[in-house]
Amino acid sequence: MATLVGASGLSPGAVLAELADALPLVHVDSGLSAQQHAILWQIRLPRVVLGALVGATLAVAGAAYQGVFRNPLADPYLLGVSSGAGLGATVMIIAGASGAGMGSLGVPVAAFAGGIVAVAATYLLGRSVGGGRGEVVIILAGVAVAAFANAAQTFVQQRYQDTLQSVYSWLLGRLSTDGWSDVTLVLPYVAVTIVVILLFRRTLDVMSVGDVEAASLGIRPARVRLLLVAVATLGTAAVVSVSGLIGFVGIVVPHAVRLVAGPGHRLLLPLSVLAGAAFLVLADVVARTVLSPAELPIGVVTAAIGAPFFLVVLRRGRGMQ
Asked: Which residue ranges run through the membrane (predicted)?
């Protein structure tokens, strides 16, 4: 459905025929013109695939964070990855590297590096304060690092106010693509993130009862926690570097899956991958159509959907206590 939405109308039959023609040993004449063919394969399909990859990664990373920290409010931005990525992107936009110097890769590279550095700073701060052993210490360290990065970003923006529009456009999130370059850029990180997290779904179920009980069963909670946080952060930083900051996916999607499939990670994690991909693709369709021909930032759409849903979840949880 998402490939059919846009200024240039493409019929469902023609799109299906074009996709079937791409399969091995299948030849179908879709009837699309050269321009329509380019629109489908170079604009719409890359955008849909990128949306699915970003949504799946944010959702499964959120579920992993909530599992390792045993905190239902945790999301992929818990350890400062969003703030670090935002600071890196802001500095690069101001430096003009997105249009010259490093080219179009400048902002994604800076955002990726900023997210990784912020999480590294969080762990160093957490270890210096509490030995890195407690979930609460790490979370508080993440809050401190995020606050510092946000303050630095605000200071830089105030010094260079002529770039505010470009900075906010990135911060609000977008899935605009230039062919398949963004997809190929993040695909290896997304694949590693999803595969590794899914391999630990049973371990997360054991860790949910507590570190002492998990250790008695031969699991090293601190090592597992560090590995999953590192992998989830790597995937989050990668997708955020090309999509901007898209909030609520890592909180809303895992909670929605829990309402249907229960809290067990053996179902929660793979279903979060699928639901996260579907959610963000649908949000992108709304972003492209609600103000057509203008386009709404996708971060605004996910916040408009996610915030009320999250409030309902919180109220439901309170009522069950």
From this structure: 41-65, 77-99, 105-125, 137-160, 180-200, 226-255, 267-287, 294-314
